[in-house]
Amino acid sequence: MAEEKFDFTIENLGPCTIQSPIKLSTVHGDFTANYVSDDSYVINEINITDKSKPVALDSSNLLEVAGPREKIYFDPTHAKAGICTCGGLCPGLNDVIRAIVRCLNTRYGVKTIKGYQFGFRGFFPESGYEPIELDRYLIDEIHKIGGTYLGTSRGGGQRVSEIVDCLDRDGINMLFILGGDGTQRGSYDIACEVERRGMKCAVVGIPKTVDNDLMFIDRSFGFETAVQRAKETVAAVHMEASSQINGIGLVKLMGREAGFIAAAAALSSHETNFCLIPEVPFEMEGENGFLAALERRLAKRGHAVIVVSEGAGQDLLTSTNATDASGNKKLADIGVFLKTQIEKYFKEKKIEINLKYIDPSYQVRACVTTAFDSIYCERLGNNAVHAAMAGKTKLVIGLVHDQYVHLPIKAVTAHRNAIDPEGNFWRDTLDATGQQILMVNDLANARAKMANAVAGAKSKPSEQKKAK
User: How many CB atoms within 10 Å of residue 65?
Assistant: First the structure.
């Protein structure tokens, strides 16, 4: 398969001619923070597999560095901003909202900031949700609570014309949209409609997906918090399992198409014996299947802890092919399935077990951020404001190689990020769990499935439709 090329050029509404109210420096060595130049870049592809090939230094590999510019596009005294949060909850939403509002208010002097309630529904008059007038005093404490101060919902993203009508009525010059893959596809469509009408409105996304499955970005906000909370759940279920006769702890975590949370929780806890993720196939029955492996573990150690992603093992379950309001396929419940199958298997073998099943998904995604995630959210929000004030649009703010950069929405949403089953992250996870590499009986079929999983991890087209 030919290597796919992306264009990382960032679009601008026009030339920046207004002096920024943020007083920084243009020289080095004066102990004053510097403005960021549009000529500052981060190289995206840093891995070298063939030393004979030169590193590309063009729009296919250079990512524009985020940060405050010396000259900006919008006059802060006339600018009006809007913010909305879409999709499922994720730790850090309030931290990002707070950062955006405070940066607009205190750093740039923007006075009018509207918070559109309950996702895209807040743009539709028939919904009856009037926007909230935000300022730094109103939102100063919201980072101390979970959820989202503005409320959220799924759907509505296909009503692009009506959303832009609302932006036009309210005189919005910059729109900040917090959401995942489907939401950001909607953001791109909104930005295109804004452009088609000749409006001057920057559309900037902040990538929100607790599954950590957006391309190019080191991690999405809330992921570190989710892993920390998941680790605590694993520790609790391990204590339960290790205190019982043939105790089994089963934890289902978020991860529709990518197993990052499950793998990270397993790797960080050091108490997980089986980690099941969407990217790696497994079978239940047979000598090399999961149930036999679980039986061997119990015989050897007397207890076991299993962590499973919600999207794992879907080929073993009956699918309804139903979708939610965002176009996501509704998954069959792998956690309940595993619990039932494990209990049935050991009952038939007349082996006593004590199984505890925990699904902490909603608890994990609704909690307050860890300190590290809170810092990340603050910096994402600030950099989103700097980008919008400079008239940059159709982009999301992301962390790449530990640098904050501007990424075109089209590139970020082109495919889903996933664990490479042949990569070092999954290798280290296997080392931590001690599980066998493949829990399958038909090796030829497994290799075919594994090949598909590897290809999908590297360049899988997104199956999520834009928010409906």
Answer: 18
What is the pTM (predicted TM-score) of this model? 0.90
Q: What are phi and psi of 133, to 5 degrees?
A: -80, 115
Distance separating alpha carbons of residues 45 and 63, to the nearest angstrom: 10
What is the per-residue pLDDT for 426?
96
Tracing tokens 């895209």 back to the chain, one arrives at 120
Helix (H), strand (E) counts: the chain: 12, 19
pLDDT of residue 275: 98
Q: Which two tokens stand for residue 256?
A: 């529709």
Per DSSP bridges, beta strands 41-43 and 62-65 are: antiparallel
**H/E/C letters for each residue in 35-47?**
CCCCCCEEECCCC
Q: With a cut of 50, which residues of the chain have pLDDT below it?
A: 1, 457-468
Q: Give me the pLDDT at residue 453, please.
A: 54
For residue 315, give both structure tokens.
Answer: 């080929």
Contact 249, 237 (CB under 8 A): yes
Residues whose CB is less than 8 angstroms from the CB of residue 111 and which lie 6 or more positions away in sequence, other chains included? 77, 105, 135
For 202, the 3-state DSSP assignment is: strand
| pLDDT tens profile 407-436 | 999 999 988 889 999 999 999 999 999 999
Catalytic residue among 95, 181, 189, 211, which? 211
Catalytic residue status for 165: no
β-strand 62-65 against 403-408: which pairing, if any?
antiparallel
Contact 435, 273 (CB under 8 A): yes
DSSP string covering 385-407, please?
HHHHHTTEESEEEEEETTEEEEE
- Would you tell me how many other CB atoms lie within 10 Å of the CB of residue 452? 13
Reading the block at residue 435, the tokens are 């599980």
Measured distance CA(466)–CA(205) in Å, rounded: 14
Max distance between CA atoms of the chain, in angstroms, equals: 78
User: How deeply is 304 buried, as exposed, middle or buried, from its count of CB atoms within 10 A (0-12, 13-18, 19+)?
Assistant: buried
Q: Give the pair of three-digit tokens for residue 98.
A: 């707070």
Question: Residue 65: beta bridge partners?
Answer: 405
Residue 71 bridge partners (DSSP): 19
Distance CA 116, CA 179 (A): 14
Q: How many CB atoms lie within 10 A of CB 2?
A: 5
Query: Residue 174 has what DSSP assignment?
Result: E
Task: Indicate the residue type of 148.
Answer: T
Residue type for position 467: A
pLDDT of residue 56: 86
Q: What is the pLDDT of residue 465?
A: 35
Note the pLDDT of residue 51: 83
Distance CA 212, CA 351 (A): 39
The pLDDT, as a whole number, for residue 181 is 86
Q: How many CB atoms lie within 10 A of CB 55?
A: 9
